[in-house]
Amino acid sequence: MHLSAEIYGRLLDGLNNLHFQEKPGRQTDMLFISDEFWLQDTAVIDHVNLLKGMHGVSLIFAHHLNPYKFICRHITAYADARRAATSAHYMRRQAAKDQRGTLKVSANFFNLNMS
Amino acid sequence: MVETKERIRAVAEKLFFENGIANVRLQQIADDTGISVGNLAYHYKNKEAIVQAVYEHLFEEFEQILASYLQLPDLRDFDQQFELLYQFFTRNTFYLNNVWEIERSYPHIKESWHRFNQKITLQIRKRLDYNQKREILQPEPYKGTYDQLAQAIWITLNYWIPQQMLQGKRLSFAGYRKALWNHVQPYLTDKGKKEYEQLILALH
């Protein structure tokens, strides 16, 4: 497939405009690097909870030394509990730096209320 | 296996440059590669296939140059493309010697090459627009001036090298670059002149 000269011209115009629409970032835009630095050493815990008839899959990223430092992210929801459990398992494995799970942190330690 | 194929292509490029596509025989390519004609026929079934392979390789390289459009947001972008094209044309001098042969006998290649020509001229033209928008270049003095300018830049990009060769002059990127920037210089604004001096002149 070949682009016609007209379409190619428009494409280049779009690239030209991109440089004008883009603004330089601020120093504070980069704060997430220091703010979220602790996330690289977290244990990832998968959590399935029943919410409005669906099995929601959440991942909890918890600091392995400080139990009060964690974030919880809702990922997806399934109608079927087994699928939710499988999905949660693989989500955790993908997200965790420590894939074999030697950092032992249990969600129950934190006494979370997920609803 | 791939290596032999590559080697044949490289030898063919060299011979095409020295003698012109029409004057090169398969026997010659095989001899220079150090293989038999039978082996050569195993890799490429005829001369057309070799010519096709040589030009496909050329086009792949050219596509990479096309993909470098506006990687830098200032005049260095122009300069970068000049350099890439200089390397391209000096590496692929066989192309320059065979322009007419391709025009006459290889319509597919001719067509692709025309398309690339059109794209690169468009890129040059749009770069002029871009720099005009940045107030580096003056507004177009007359309608169509920048179309002509883009065309002139492309002609220089293409034919500066064969022109030097024909006159027995030395090839150098500095000379090539000077000839190209010479087209753009008269249209620079004060801001453009400053950028040109700081980013282009000062760096070489």
What does this structure look like?
The complex is a heterodimer of chains A (115) and B (204). Helix content of chain A is 32%, strand content 25%. Chain A is an alpha+beta fold and 115 residues long. A 3-stranded antiparallel β-sheet of chain A has the order 1-2-3, covered by helices on one side. The N and C termini of chain A lie far apart (52 Å). Chain B has 204 residues and is mainly alpha-helical. Chain B has 11 helices and no strands. Chain B is elongated. Chains A and B meet through helix 1 of A and helix 8 of B.
Unreliable residue stretches of chain A: none
Describe the main β-sheet of chain B briefly: none
Derived structural class of chain B? mainly alpha
Give the C-alpha Rg of chain B.
20 Å
Biggest β-sheet of chain A: count, sense, barrel? 3 strands, antiparallel
- How do the helices and strands follow one another from N- to C-terminus of chain B? HHHHHHHHHHH
Q: What's the N-to-C terminus distance of chain B?
A: 43 Å
Number of strand segments of chain A = 3
The rough form of chain B would be described as elongated
Q: Which strand order do you get reading across the main beta sheet of chain A?
A: 1-2-3
Order of helices and strands of chain A: HHEEEH
Largest interface: A-B, 10 and 12 residues
Number of helices of chain B: 11
Net shape of chain A: extended
Q: Count of DSSP helices of chain A?
A: 3
Arithmetic mean pLDDT of chain A:
84
| Class computed from helices, strands and strand pairing of chain A | alpha+beta
Whole-angstrom Rg of chain A: 22 Å
Mean pLDDT of chain B: 92
Number of strands of chain B: 0
Poorly predicted sequence stretches spanning 5 or more consecutive residues of chain B: none
